[in-house]
Amino acid sequence: MPRGPSVKIQEAGATNTAYAKGIARQPGHRLASWDNGLYRQALISVVTNPRLHCHSTTAILNSPISRLNPMTDSPARFSLHNKRALVTGASRGLGAEIASVLAAAGADLVISGRDPVGLQHTQQTVRQLGRSCHDVLADLRNPEEVLRLADGALEQFGAVDILVNNAGIVHIEDLLSTTLEHWEETQAVNLRAPFLLAQRLVPAMIQQRQGKIINISSVAGVLAIEGHAAYSASKGGLNMLTQTMAAEWGRYNIQANAVAPTVILTEMGQQVWGEASKGEPMKARIPARRFGEPVEVADLVLFLASNASDFICGQVIRLDGGLTVV
Ligand SMILES: NC(=O)c1ccc[n+]([C@@H]2O[C@H](COP(=O)([O-])OP(=O)(O)OC[C@H]3O[C@@H](n4cnc5c(N)ncnc54)[C@H](OP(=O)(O)O)[C@@H]3O)[C@@H](O)[C@H]2O)c1
Fold first, then answer.
1. Residue 240: which of 200, 202, 195 has the closest Cα?
2. Beta strands, E only, the chain
3. Residues near 263 by Cβ (< 8 Å), separated by ≥ 6?
4. Of 74, 130, 195, 204, which shows the fewest CB atoms inside 10 Å?
5. Could you tell me if 188 and 140 are in contact, meaning their C-beta atoms sit under 8 angstroms apart?
């Protein structure tokens, strides 16, 4: 079979590269080499059937994604193979779940929190999945520790491809009883730390023209809930921070998005909604009539971390069983 054209495709992107792989699997075609190390410069070299000539190359560039073979191409688009991710608050709860799901999809990890035992547990899970995992103890209330965490991740990886700002705290108290200390602690962990981490990590993302920032927000950031004043303000702020990140960094092929879950019965979820007298009425407000599961948050984070979501930028995605539409 004669060797077809070797073509350098600028701006190849995930859609075209995935489609090219689909073409190459068709009879008479073979993918000779593949290098998608840099998003904007995928080197595609396809061996074509002489009867089809080099139409395949043109087709690769112009074909709609609907012609992808979902059975063979989806895994590649959802893969995080060799991506480098930083997940905060990974010592338990949603962060631990997110770390495991990202590792199962192929990512290497830096994880952080304050509890060394919880971090070790997550680290063990990630390593069992065959990925590397480095833990950094850091108290995100302290800006110097936030920056030390970012520098630790850069030292480990060179550049971070995926930043998941997950660590968060809540103090349940009505507005009139909210103390200055709780207010400031909440803004520091939930809002200032994501800002500082992104500010430190994004220059390397810009340089490599690739990055994903996923901020774990809350429905409390879009819906007023009694007793959540400082928390709601921090998550509402995080939503706007996410949109500003998208506005400023989208041009560098960096996608920033927020995930806004309703109740998930982690330690935090238990603390706020664990009592039946509070939890049951809340559940009754949710059209799905149930709370979420940690893995449902992690799956959405996985999607937002993968090339499958490359055109989703600056969104606050509500993961709430319909709570905020009724
Ligand atoms: N569970 C829910 O119902 C729910 C709903 C909507 C949104 N969310 C959001 O989802 C995220 C994860 O929540 P979760 O339910 O998994 O809560 P969680 O079980 O309480 O876990 C919180 C995580 O954040 C870390 N963290 C807290 N304070 C920290 C600090 N000062 N420095 C460093 N790390 C700190 C904790 O680690 P250490 O204790 O080791 O420091 C822990 O790993 C949060 O942003 C939360 O607001 C949760």
1. 195
2. 6-10, 30-38, 41-47, 84-87, 108-113, 133-137, 162-165, 211-216, 254-261, 316-319
3. 269, 272, 273, 279, 282, 283, 291, 292
4. 130
5. yes
State which ligand 1 atom lies nearest to the alpha carbon of 263: 3
Residues contacting ligand 1 via CB (< 6 Å): 89, 91-95, 113-115, 118, 138-141, 166-169, 189, 216, 218, 261, 263-264, 266-269
- Please write the tens of the pLDDT for every residue from 259-307: 999 999 999 999 999 999 999 999 999 999 999 999 999 999 999 999 9
Could you tell me the distance, in angstroms and rounded to a whole number, from the CA of residue 320 to the centre of ligand 1? 18
For ligand 1, the distance from its centroid to the CA atom of residue 81, given in whole angstroms, is 26
CA distance 30 to 75: 19
231 is annotated as an active-site residue = yes
- The answer to whether 253 and 209 are in contact (CB under 8 A) is yes
Per-residue pLDDT tens for 103-119?
A: 999 999 999 999 999 99
Ligand 1 centre distance from Cα of residue 90 (Å): 8
